[in-house]
Every structure is written in structure tokens, then in C-alpha cells.
Amino acid sequence: MHESAEQLVVRARERFALQDYYGAVHLLEEVAAGGRAFADAYHLLGLSLSLLGQPAAALAEFDRALGLNPRYLEALIHRGLVLLELGRTAEAEESFRRAGTASGGTVAGLPAATAARLANQHAGLGDAYAEAGALNDAIVQYRRALELGPSFHDLRYRLARLLLEANRPLDAREQLELVLRARPNFVDAQAALGLARYLSGDAAGAREVWTACLRRRPEDARVEAYLAMMERSRS
Fold first, then answer.
1. Does 228 have pLDDT greater than 80?
2. What are the residue ranges of helices labelled H in the chain?
3. What is the pLDDT of residues 54-72, one digit of tens each?
4. 213: which residues sit within 8 A by CB, 6+ positions away?
5. Which residues contact 186 (CB under 8 A, 6 or more apart)?
6. CB neighbours (10 Å) of residue 38?
7. 65 in Cβ contact with 43 (< 8 Å)
8. Do the domains 5-103 and 169-235 sit in the same CATH topology, yes or no?
9. In the CATH scheme, what is the code of domain 5-103?
10. What are 81-108's pLDDT values in tens digits?
11. How many C-beta atoms surround the C-beta of residue 29 within 10 A?
């Protein structure tokens, strides 16, 4: 059974909370290998590797997280700590300096670091509503999360999935196009965009997107199933 990137990351967070860092690494490496990782997945992978005594590998993952979000406060701080562990003091100080700068500024009238924290809390509340079957309330929480974290494309993708579940494919399509504009190689979002197009009546557009998905990730069972569904509906 194919698991989405967010499902794998949720499982990785659970393994991390249980101090099963090897388990977290295994799940997060699967996400990264599929080109599906967001900054928070790379950060968690780096943190897990650091706790496993692999500072050089951890540093590489923190750098990947920062490549996607240069103002990622926790990644900058943990990167600095790893650099200190490696004896690279000057680089560590620069990372800490960047962290101090990243915490400045405001988003939606709040300090940037506070806005980021609240965005994730709204997303968590949205997940709770979704698990209870209250999709509209979940969508409200995710929209508020994105007001506070407009560059948090992992949250935007999850909002799009909720919109699909709520039978709002046009709204989902809008969000997925924003995600793919920032992360063009994110195949799960691309597959979901195909579904949004199909459900909104754009079968030709859906086929185009799903065919492109298979070029990026051959033998993706979910995308193959979507295309088979489309063929059956035409016959």
C-alpha cells in the first residue's frame, strides 16, 4: 500500500517521540528518496541523524531543509549545534547569527517565530477536526495556518487533500498549483493535481498530469490506478 508523504512524516514523528531514531530515519529517507520531502521532513531527518551520532549526515539534511526555507529557525539552531560538534566554530556562529535574524520580522502582525509556531498548532487542530470527520472545520484551521505560514507548502498540500475530501476540487486545484510552483518535483502533489482536474471535469488535463507523474516515478500504483479508472470510464 502506497503511503503519502505526510503519512510517512507523521509516522516518523511518532517514532521520534518514542526515541526510535532509526525508525524515524528509515521513514524520512523513504520520503526524501521519492522527492517528496519538505523542509520539516529534512529537519527531522537531520535531528534524528544527529541523535544517532552522525553529525556530518545530519548537517547535510539541515542544509537541505534550509535550501527550501532559508529562515527555518530550528534548522539553523540545530545546524549550529552540529557545526560546534564538528569543531567548525566560525560556521556555527554564522548559523546562530542567521537564526537570530530569522526570528525577526512579522507575519500577520505577529513575530515570525510566533506565527510559525501558531501555524503548526492550527494545522494540528485541523488534523484533529479531520480525524473527527469535521472537514469544513479542518479546512478553516488550515487556511488560518497558511495565513500565518504562507510559505509552509507542506501545510498547503495537506489543505488541498482536505479540499479534495470535501468535494471541492477547484479549490484543491488552486492550492496544488501553488505547491507545485514552489516544489515542481513533488510527485504526490502532482498526482493530487491530476485528481483535482479529473474531479472538476478536466479529464484531458488530468491525463496530462498523471502521464507526467509516471515519467517521474514509473510504476506508481496509485497513478496507474487513476489512469485505469479513466480508461474504464471512457469504455
1. yes
2. 5-17, 21-33, 39-51, 55-68, 73-85, 89-102, 112-131, 135-148, 153-165, 169-182, 187-199, 203-216, 221-234
3. 999 999 999 998 888 887 8
4. 187, 190, 191, 194, 220, 223
5. 5, 35, 36, 153, 157, 179, 180
6. 24
7. yes
8. yes
9. 1.25.40.10
10. 999 988 999 998 998 888 877 666 677 7
11. 18
* Torsion angle of the four alpha carbons 216, 71, 56, 120, in this order, in degrees rounded to the nearest 10: -70
Nearest to 195 by CA among 225, 217, 219: 225
- Residue type present at position 139: I
Please tell me the distance from the alpha carbon of residue 45 to that of residue 61, in angstroms, as a whole number. 7
**Cα–Cα distance between 37 and 183 in angstroms, integer?**
10
137-191 pLDDT, tens digit per residue, is 999 999 999 998 888 888 899 999 999 999 999 999 999 999 999 888 888 899 9
CATH topology of domain 169-235: 1.25.40
- Measured distance CA(235)–CA(217) in Å, rounded: 27
For 110, phi then psi, to 5°, come to: -120, 155
Please state the domain extents for the chain. 5-103, 106-151, 169-235
Q: 68, 70, 98: which is closest to 83 by C-alpha?
A: 98
Cα–Cα distance, 27 to 36 (Å, whole number): 12
